[in-house]
# Entry
Amino acid sequence: MPESLPITPYVPQYITVHLGAPSANAENVTVSFPDYVKNVASSEIYPTWKPAALRANILAIISFALNRVYTEFYPSRGYPFNITSSTAYDQKFIKGRNIFENISQLVDDMFNTYIRRIGFVEPLAAKFCNGTTVTCDGLSQWGSQALAEEGADYMSILRSYYGDNIELVTNAPVTGIRYSYPGAPLRRGSRGEAVQRIQVMLNRISQDYPAIPKVYPVDGIYGPATENAVQIFQQIFDLTPDGVVGNATWYKMVFLYVGVLDLAELISQGQTYYPGSGSQPLPSVLAEGARGDSVRTIQYVISVVSEFYTNIPRLAIDGIYGPATKNAVIALQRMSGLPQDGIMGPATWQALYQLYAGIVDTVENDTNVIPPAFRPDIPDSQATGLTQFPGRTLTLGSAD
# Structure
C-alpha cells in the first residue's frame, strides 16, 4: 500500500505552467518537462557560471518542480495547472525566451535526476533565491557560484545549503502527468489501492484533527469504518457529508495530507520508507551486503519493533545491510527461536510481521498500519506495492 499520493515520484513528459500568480487571470502553457527546466534555468542563472554551480542550480530547479507535481500542489487547490511562473511562489518561466546552449545540454543530461532527503520518498522542495537582493532558507544562486569558484563540486554545493542528508535519484521514470484521483467516486463496497490511500490520508490527517476516527485495518476495503471517517472529515471541512469520496473530497484530503506533512517545504516531515512505500519490490531474502530501499524498509520495521522490545537493537535507516542490521536480525531470530544466521528470509520475515502486527494492535498511529503487501496472510493477488517471497537470496555485493 503506497504512502505517497502518486505512488512513486516520476518525471512528467509535459508540465502546465500558469503565466502569473496562482489566482491571476493569465495564460496556461504546456511544455515538455526538459524544455520547462531549460527555460527556468536560462531565466534564473547565468550560462557563464562554473559547471558545478550550473548543475547544482539545475538540480534544485528540477527537484522543486517535481515536488510541485508530486504533491499535486495546485490541482489540490482547484487550479488547472502544475506550477506558476511567479517567483513569489515558484520559479521564473518566460514564454518564448531563448535558451542557452550549454544549459540546454546540461538539462538534457540531468532532467530525470532529482534531490531527495535520505530515507524519504518525495522530491525535495529545493527552494532557492539569488542570495543578493533576496535571501531564503535554501540555495543561494550567487553563493553557489562563489562556492564553485572555490572548487566545490555540485553535490558539495547542494549539501552546503540543503544539508548532508540528501541524495540524488537518477534515471527517474518519465511518464505522463498522473493525477491521484482515481477518476470515479469511491464509496462503501469499493476496494483497491485508491481506498488504501484514502485510509492512509485519513489516518495521518486525524493526528491533527482528532475528531476524525482512525481506520484500522488499512485494507483497501471501503467498509463502515472508512465511510464513517469520510463523513466526519466532510463535516469538518464543509463538504457534503455523504460518505462518498468524489473529486472535491479526494483533493481536500490531498491538500491537508500534503500540508500536515509539510511535503512542499524544506522542513518537510517527509514520507518515510515503510512497507509498500518504496519504489522497489522487496525481496524475501536479505543478507549482509545488500543495499537499497528494500533494506531501508527492513530497517524501519525493525526500528519500530525495537521501540517495544529492548533486546532488539535500534538501527540507523541507511539502506546498508551491514553488521548492525545483521546483529538486529540475529536478535530477532534469537527471540523468535529461529536459526541465528542474520539473514532476513521468509521465516524471519514472518516473525518480524508477528511482532509488528502486535504493536499495531496496541499503538494506533499512521506509521504502524500494516499494509496488505506486508502481510503474509493475504494472497499475492490482493497485495500491492511489494512482491512476496520470490526466493532470491541477496549476498555480499548484491543490490536492488
